[in-house]
Amino acid sequence: MTEFAYQAFSEVARQKTFVAAAKTLNVTPSAISHSIAGFENELDFPLFIRNRTGVTLTPDGAKILPIVQEILNTETKLHEEADRIKGLNSGKIRLGAFSSVCINWLPDIIRTFRQEHPQIDISIEQGNFNRVTEQVRLGRIDIGFSALPIAENLNVVPLHEDQIYCIAPSDFVPHNGQTITKEDVKNERFILQQIDYDRETKRALDAYNVSVNSIQYSIDDASIIAMVESGLGLGILPELALQNLSGNVRVYPFSKSFKRTIAVVSQSEEKQTPSTHAFLQLVQRWVNVHY
Length: 291
Known about the structure:
With 291 residues, this protein is α/β, with parallel strands linked by helices. The chain contains twelve helices and eleven strands. Strands 3, 4, 5, 6, 7, 8, 9, 10 and 11 form a nine-stranded mixed sheet that branches. Helix 9 links the parallel strand 7 (190-193) and strand 8. Helix 1 crosses helix 2 and helix 1 (3-15) crosses helix 4 (59-85). The model has no long low-confidence stretch (mean pLDDT 91).
């Protein structure tokens, strides 16, 4: 098959419509349809289930998607290595990260990287921990920022332990004056993003006997601060998320320490392109300097 057939298959699997995939690849929908049909004929089994709203992968299509993505990644690595040999500085890095890393880390990291590698194109996809890790596993992004534990068989480098805090209205004072205890949250509601009800955040709420019925969800970290400021409940946020947020609220540690471990995730080193490897090295240096 041609490289375009692999690109078309991968993009349709990601976008879930032929029209959206065609727009991304700058071709007509009929070109995508023809390419997919030819791929299915060669494999002798269907790759997608067609419906009114778009397409979904068949079980067989889902099995070959990681293989196709690996072929595309190898092709990219080949071109980048050839450019490196010729003394060029080019390539593409696809990043995935959750919101607080996108806001507080990536602008400075990317700016620093581009000073040394101005010709390398960088794209960013925002998502929760599980989505970012899954996209790295599938080869759709090259480098992901997630949080431990990570069960996938990937290259995982822990970067930073991020303390979890309780956010309270300005007139709220814990019983002991310093830390949040079970007594403080007994009759309180908590406000958080739904995607954050995971890992250490969930462990903290469970440890303080906060039931699901006492949780309400907000759209982003800034909204959590605004709702807490208005006296609608308590918030729970990690230190990194608080760096660029402000409001008339108080920040208290829990009486028991809870931390999430932020990690950078990638494919094994032998599958990395030269630009990806260089970016990973910069990330580790940057975190070591700033934390």
